[in-house]
Amino acid sequence: MSTTRILDGGMSRELLRLGAELKQPEWSALALINSPDIVREVHKEFIAAGSEVITTNSYALVPFHIGEDRFQKEGAELIRLAGRLAREAADTVTDRKVLVAGSLPPIFGSYEPQNFQPWRVQDYLKVLVENLAPFVDVWLGETLSLIAEGEAVRKAVAVSGKPFWISFTLADDAAAIGGGEPKLRSGESVEAAAAWAVSSGATAFLFNCSKPEVMQAAVETTARVFRKADARIEIGVYANAFEGETGEAAANEGLHDTRDDLNDDTYSRYACSWADAGATIIGGCCGIGAAHIHRLRQTLSR
């Protein structure tokens, strides 16, 4: 467990905690527009908590959140700002290397694989990649719901020459929690997604923005696929703390309630099970804050 790389946690609630305003439809993009200093401060808090990788606050910088008109007029500038703030925070660290991951979100909405438009996706990903590229060390396609979204990210970042990670969100309904075959929210199997990853060129394959209870099975399935293929790809997890069913609601259509039972100790125990199953990159997603990451770092370093 001592070799586990620690990610940051969810951005939105930490922004709110430090006084940023978040509202729909802009969501976390609003903090870049109105209070960029708070965005930088959240990055620094995660670093202080032990994060070795911080993620750019570019998740909501897509037309789905800021609108087509604003994306065309201000998108590139806001994306560059998100990259610069993360880079500035990472570069303040002198005793260790902190990587900046460039967040490449699902372009047409979280948890909504049915909205994927392959004929348009590269138009938007290109803007994100071009403007984040000067600031990031690795690409992170995250909260992807279907394999085609992962393939789109692979194509978009190829020109950059930088490594890329792909992170899928999992079905986390009662059937999945009860031990059903681990699947993406599209219904595609984790086994199929892991098989795609083997030939994709990705250096890490992760699962995020799903309940902690479904992550271990996904890691175990992925580890089996990778062992069989002799694939040297890292496996990662960063779960959310959402309460109740999330499969029928967009991940960021509002401020979901978070679980009272998922404190930093409980989350760290889940993290240990993921590490035991083969995960070497672990952090948190929505509702997992700096305090969780601090405890996670302490627990996994023992």
UniProtKB/TrEMBL annotation:
Coiled coil: none annotated. Keywords: Metal-binding, Methyltransferase, Transferase, Zinc. Signal peptide: none annotated. Zn(2+) binds at residues 209, 285-286. SUPFAM superfamilies: Homocysteine S-methyltransferase. It comes from the Bacteria. Residues 1-300 form the Hcy-binding domain. Gene3D superfamilies: Homocysteine-binding-like domain. It holds the Pfam family S-methyl_trans. Its cofactor is Zn(2+). This is Homocysteine S-methyltransferase. It comes from Rhizobium hidalgonense.
